[in-house]
Fold:
Amino acid sequence: MFQYLLFFTEPTMRRLATAVTLALASTTTTAANVILIVGDGMDDQQVTIARDYLKGANGQLLLDQMPVRSAVQILTVEDNTEGKPVYVADSANTATSLATGAVTSRGRIATSAGDDRDLPTIVELARAAGLRTGIVSSASVTDATPASFAAHISYRMCENPELMADITYSGIHLGHCQQDMKANGGAGSISEQLAVSGLDVLLGGGAKHFQPTVEGGTESVLRSAQLAGFSVVRSRDELLAAEPGERLLGLFAPGTLPVRMRGEDGREAEAPRPSLLNRLHQYLGSVELPEPMRCEPNPEAAGIPSLKEMTDTALQQLSHNNERGFFLMVESASIDKQSHERKPCGSIGELEQLDEVLASALDFAAQHPDTLVLVTADHSQAAQLIPQRSMFEAYTVPIYTPGKMARIITPEGSIMGVNYATNDFGYEEHTGANVPLYGNAAAEGRVKTFQRQSELFGIMREFLGL
Amino acid sequence: MFQYLLFFTEPTMRRLATAVTLALASTTTTAANVILIVGDGMDDQQVTIARDYLKGANGQLLLDQMPVRSAVQILTVEDNTEGKPVYVADSANTATSLATGAVTSRGRIATSAGDDRDLPTIVELARAAGLRTGIVSSASVTDATPASFAAHISYRMCENPELMADITYSGIHLGHCQQDMKANGGAGSISEQLAVSGLDVLLGGGAKHFQPTVEGGTESVLRSAQLAGFSVVRSRDELLAAEPGERLLGLFAPGTLPVRMRGEDGREAEAPRPSLLNRLHQYLGSVELPEPMRCEPNPEAAGIPSLKEMTDTALQQLSHNNERGFFLMVESASIDKQSHERKPCGSIGELEQLDEVLASALDFAAQHPDTLVLVTADHSQAAQLIPQRSMFEAYTVPIYTPGKMARIITPEGSIMGVNYATNDFGYEEHTGANVPLYGNAAAEGRVKTFQRQSELFGIMREFLGL
Structure:
């Protein structure tokens, strides 16, 4: 049979061989797998904005077709051991909840609020039990969400050995991780920890965090990862050519991966422009709302592997000759990052990427029935779907957002208004609403209609028998 | 047995008698009932804000404990027969979707977009099949949500006979319903239609819309309702004393019912106050955020029946000696209205009222197993749960919302930030996100994880066998 396959082209053969492997695996193994897909900042506003653009107001994302849907309560606390509730979270504390089952304070990576204990992660538990583990992200792999699954540090910005003693931005001291430095008995920066994490697959951005020299050593963090057994891939071609069974570290950009989509000519949300008279009184004068715009492909994303391509490779590596199962976390990071920067087309494209990853995960689960697929967000975000012209325009006074808005021309020919108005800073705030959770059939009976984010850890752990 | 009851106080006796009636009914009837609870503007932000305040960050509303949870896609279109999608809805078109299964344009009450056809409502179908019907709202009963279940008109503001030919506000012409005037062959204003609707129970606010004289007649709309068989109650005491079996019209305020809760000393969300230097450049100077505040009971609500009291009376009237079943819609209207006015404590109190109504509905369903309880929102709203101080405050520049915010001291002793920033007008905009749907056990297998708002009509209709 395999002799026949030799007449096919290389990629076709590889796909067929993989299919055969998968088919054999599904009949011969009892491996349990968990695929956790995290849409960073993917709240119901973001999902609806993306659905309206990608599928139309009447349409459905693949997400919407999942058999299990629930809501997740996001919890975080002040940074002390008996910390009071804080009502808006960040990606560090929320990923820590997903990865460890603990509620911690903002900015922490798998460490406890106040007393800074390392919290065991599901990746570590899975590894200890002989399962394979993988992390895929469209952010730097050292960013808060991926980091929380395989590193422990008190402050998310300590992403490489040069960002440990003092993190400053424009001369402003933001924090440090001196207690985590190896010289002080710690495990070092996030990239240093990831390099020796034992992960089987780690794919995303963040190459710049692997260039510095490891603390107390002479080689780069990247070299230390290679010494620890990682094969390093740096391009889409190298990724797609990866041999099954390799332990893969893929770094496809210096930092966050370029996003798929952007506003026409790079436009983002803009401030409405009131006339001079309107500045005197809100009912006087007129206002010019931002011109409607289309979304377009982001030229910077050319040659960057898609989140689905990274996920497909990860699934191949993790499932190849694996009788024990795996844990894989895939993050679509820039739903959040583009919302911080008031770029609605960017968020839409990254939600599309997440929906594609879900298709891959469901295909895999169809061939490997003992696979739990969960999709959730870590926290809600600033963007709001608002009327593209005020609901109250009959009042014939200038009415407009005090923030910034985009008016997006959708493929079905209507105009969608997206508002960003949580602050006047360079980055919008997160918001605190509960977020959606979606599951495949394997989630039925395991997921309640409403639960704490930290409880998802226990659900995944139990599914994997850890 | 009933002789014994005479020794109890009147209210106790009535409660016991009701309990006996309910118990007998549950064993002797196969009536199917639907209780639809609508939280106007009750999106995931509003639910989380209310949960954090009422139950704590770790707590749960009764809503959160429902066995069925789903998401609802909100649809509306331009006002022509082939209208393109519009991405943000209002309470008129959304209530029309729930009541009739049709997607229509904003502002319409159970009439079709463009060609203005009357759309049969679930209340009318239920009545025709011999079921009882009831509507309870904390808005005027003539407001968009209740009206859409039992009236047909092209424009929601035509609430009484004096608001038909021309509706103006501060000299601005907003619309009219001339084609719906009786003189032109129409059915008249909303209050006129409700008066002769045949509803068994209609409770809420809006007394002022029943004072005008009916078009072409000499009596008031209220009198026409009495002539059509309604017993009119005007106070909480009269409501609680209603005899089972009466057809009840209850009007407890001139317009919207006063809400349960308000900000300390009537405070609402306020604009942050930047220093003069900060007006020159966003990174200069300082900003004074609104002082934290508590929520307090609204003194204006004294003596007004709660939404739960109205619901309990409605359930009593609808179920008394009823072998065929009923349809009841209960709306907590001011989650939305208080959000329009940037009053977070108001919205929280009205969500608390909704949760109490749900408790009554579930109690009733426990005694009458063939009762479908659905809770949903009509559309999402402007309020956002944001950090009470910016997530980026380490940057030491003034960072604050361009809109208005409240910083609410919660009973668990933390501070919650609520932002309103969709426009600079007197009323915030709606938003367009999909909204939650909750169901009791009777909803299992009937409700998908994601569906169009208009599909809920079919689910209720099928449950009632209409």
